[in-house]
Amino acid sequence: MRALYYEEYGDVDVLKLGETRNPDMSDDEVLIRVRAASLNPFDWKLRNGMLRDFFEMDFPITPGRDGCGEIVELGKNVDGMRLEQGQLVSFILSELQHGSMAEFVGVSGNDNVVPAADNLSIQGSAAIPLTGLSAWNAMVDTAQTQAGMRVLIHGGSGGVGSVAIQIAHHFGADIYATCHSANVERVEKLGAHAISYDLEDFTSAVSDCDVVLDTVGGQVHEDSYKVLKKGGRLVYLLARPFNDLSADYDVEDIQVTVFGNTANLVKVIDFARKGIIKPHIGHSLGLDDFDKAFELSESGNAGGKIVLNLDTQAIARPADDTKTTRAPGSL
Ligand SMILES: NC(=O)c1ccc[n+]([C@@H]2O[C@H](COP(=O)([O-])OP(=O)(O)OC[C@H]3O[C@@H](n4cnc5c(N)ncnc54)[C@H](OP(=O)(O)O)[C@@H]3O)[C@@H](O)[C@H]2O)c1
């Protein structure tokens, strides 16, 4: 099959588009013909070797943690009441099991695959699993966001941050979100008071927060202690390293873990189906534009989710959530 892959850690030059072996499928997996794969920061962090001490991988590695495609085959241990051949699904792969940037991928069928939302485009359905689960685990399971809470979300224009705002908005929180000044309008439309991190210091713009979601790390994390109430929660997705000062400020520092979880993935897709969560696709590219896609993601300011398309014209779907920067190409 055609796939994106790399055989050594390194910069974007190690990526190759070519023929690889079709995935070996276990009885617990479904084989999916991928129509669109989403690109997450994890993909380039793994590729450039930053995560080599955490995840022991065999080469070649095909990147891609999530996507959208049709089920080609169901393993015999997969719940046939929930999934069926030919169905269009959104799926997520674990940190150790990659490969959505390929024609076919085998995915654990009982916990990582959910029927796609009818109202989403293929690109939206591909973009939502990892960012949606990360935001859900952060804002619902970990932060237990409720009406009236004051919440600060860093990276409110990013993949995770923009979904986190929409979830917190649904639960009635008073939301502040940091983003570049170029993205203020979009972030405010999602339901947050935007704080332009390039123009103002967020510690002067907000205080007494019940919860901060940190998707940035480093100094942003350390400054975030200052805007929390005593007993507040600094919920974070590991981005850049930081010093844990939670005891000095009498707040909780809680890392969010993201793993395949059908119950939460079903809730995320259901929120998308109801229009509560709308993914924002910044760049919809063909798989052959992989180098441009990775460079955009690594810039840290991609301006929305990046999706790589594989023969998406073969399926008729709504195109509501896609701002196409290049006509989706096939392999
Ligand atoms: N399992 C996990 O722990 C897990 C899971 C998911 C994600 N993550 C991590 O979470 C991070 C975010 O992921 P993502 O998918 O949301 O990435 P993304 O879509 O690339 O978004 C990153 C966002 O960060 C914003 N940003 C950059 N510098 C900032 C600053 N100083 N203050 C506030 N915002 C700033 C950018 O906003 P502008 O464009 O407006 O500049 C951009 O929208 C990544 O590091 C990723 O690896 C971890």
Termini distance? 10 Å
Counted beta strands: 15
Order of helices and strands, N to C? EEEHEEEEHEHEHEHEHEHEHEHE
CATH topology tier name of the largest domain: Quinone Oxidoreductase, Chain A, domain 1
Radius of gyration (Å) = 19 Å
List low-pLDDT spans. Answer: 322-331
Commentary on this structure:
With 331 residues, the protein is α/β, with parallel strands linked by helices. The protein has helices spanning 41-47, 122-142, 159-170, 184-190, 202-205, 218-224, 246-249, 262-273, 290-298, and strands at residues 2-5, 16-19, 29-39, 66-74, 88-92, 104-108, 113-115, 150-153, 174-179, 193-196, 209-214, 228-236, 252-255, 281-286, 305-309. It folds into two domains: 2-129 and 260-314, Quinone Oxidoreductase, Chain A, domain 1 (Alpha-Beta Complex), CATH 3.90.180.10; 131-255, NAD(P)-binding Rossmann-like Domain (Rossmann fold), CATH 3.40.50.720. It has nine helices and 15 strands. Strands 3, 4, 5, 6, 7, 14 and 15 form a seven-stranded mixed beta sheet that branches. Helix 2 (122-142) crosses helix 3 (159-170) and helix 2 crosses helix 8 (262-273). NADP nicotinamide-adenine-dinucleotide phosphate binds next to helix 1, helix 2, helix 3 and strand 9.
List the helices and strands and how they pair.
Blueprint: E1 2-5, E2 16-19, E3 29-39, H1 41-47, E4 66-74, E5 88-92, E6 104-108, E7 113-115, H2 122-142, E8 150-153, H3 159-170, E9 174-179, H4 184-190, E10 193-196, H5 202-205, E11 209-214, H6 218-224, E12 228-236, H7 246-249, E13 252-255, H8 262-273, E14 281-286, H9 290-298, E15 305-309
